Give the backbone structure.
Amino acid sequence: MAGVAVLAAGCAGQPGTTPVGTDMRIDANAVQPSPVSRREAYEYHVLAGEMAIQRGNRDLAAREYVAALEYSNDPALAKRATRIALFAEQPDLAYKAAKIWARNEPDSLNAQRTATRMAVANEDAEGLANYAPALVTAAASPDIGYRLLADVVSGAPNATDMVIDTLSDMAQADSDSAPAQYALGVVALRYDRSEVAARAAERALALDPNWNDAVLLQSGVWIQSGETSKARALVAGLPGNAASRAQYHLALARLLIEADHEDAALGEFEQAIELQPDNTDARYGLAILSLSLGQLDRAQTALTRLYDNNERADDAAFYLGTIAEERENYAEAQRWYQRVENGGHAFEGQVRGARMIFMQGDLPAAQRRLSELRDSYPDLSEQLYAAEGQLLYEADEPRAALDIYNHGLDEIPDSTELRYGRSMAHERLGDIQAAKQDLETVLDREPDDARALNALGYLIANHGSDYDRAASYIQRALETEPDNPAILDSMGWVEYRRGNLDAARHYLERAYRDFADAEVAAHLGEVLWQQGQHEAARRIWQDAMADSADHPVLTETVERLDP
């Protein structure tokens, strides 16, 4: 560390190496030190980046590492800078670093794949035209490369035209390659470009009539055009034993899901299970899709079979817990969550298990369990403090919640999650200024945080009269999440406070349609009441009170307007 200290001291006064945010005032009459060497500048930025990582400042770390690349083309440095920028959610900086990494490691599949992904994220058509073919070339085979490319460029609706144009150009340049046509068809199918997908599928089949994936692509095109039976007949004609044909039905189920034909996909999962009863992927897919469609009995049957056969048992236990929770059987949900010991759901399962203890009415035991989890998961203490604070808030113990949030922030002072939670506790306690201050701090660090924008706007509207300012915050939140019912409710309430009853009703009806919450019902009913539609307002309030008779906002609204 002695060398690091000398380097830091030697760079401290050098021009051009001041960390971001430092206020430099240079005396024009002073004798200026000579410029640092490229090596010194490189070492300074790397050191500054490492120090930022140690302090948990991801944004600064990304900036410093990318700045170091101005003085070095080291591919290892470019790779690390890319990953740090991605972790910091800085796509522009990640792309800048990824371009250097890809240029210096042209045979690296990871480098070309990352550069391709960043070109899509940054909507750089020229970059995508360069990196997409390089990705295919770097892969072990064109088939593998085109499959990877299709996955990398999918899921970016803002870049649809750019992606389709690039893959169309590649398919035209590689016109004798069935994988090239297949990649174009799959991506076009995912982006709902049916005509492009149909032409690509037809070309892929013409080039390789016996290629099963080309047959499945054609099936996907027919499914998207509504010709499901035709697609199934095509898949049924594929050769192979029961296990192979089960895989075809599994692939068709996935295509059906991508084309938003979930009910038909359920049938394909079941067909795959009938052909191969021990097909874990098919049974798990059936369970998760059934769960997403609200078919809890069907999902429970499939998940129980998986758990009993020790197939994806941790995942099965977690989702069986969610089913029991949905049915408000909190004791059973707790038992299932406690069985989730490994895998990606292990931590969430344990936290949910603690919540189920609270839902059974034992807040102290839930708190003890969360405290135990903080000992077991010290790196995840932020989420655990937030979970405990939320339980106390829901239990109408805002003072205790405030204490938990304060304790958590003492340990993790930069936590926006804990600061947001603390703002809610401050509001419940009547300290509106402290609540606003916490939310403003969150927004200083994360200006596009829709939840904080909405909360601050709603707070201002409810505890003041600066409705224009309140609306400006909520409008920014809506731009990020235009269909979020909570934000729509806030905007409706602000419009009501402004006296714009028609606009208020428009937002509140949208919110209530997707989220019939008691507070939304209170707000919509109040607007209808002020428009003279008293019976309509009463119906909405009565429906809400059937499930939330003690909700304070709903109760206050009804007693005030319709005593």
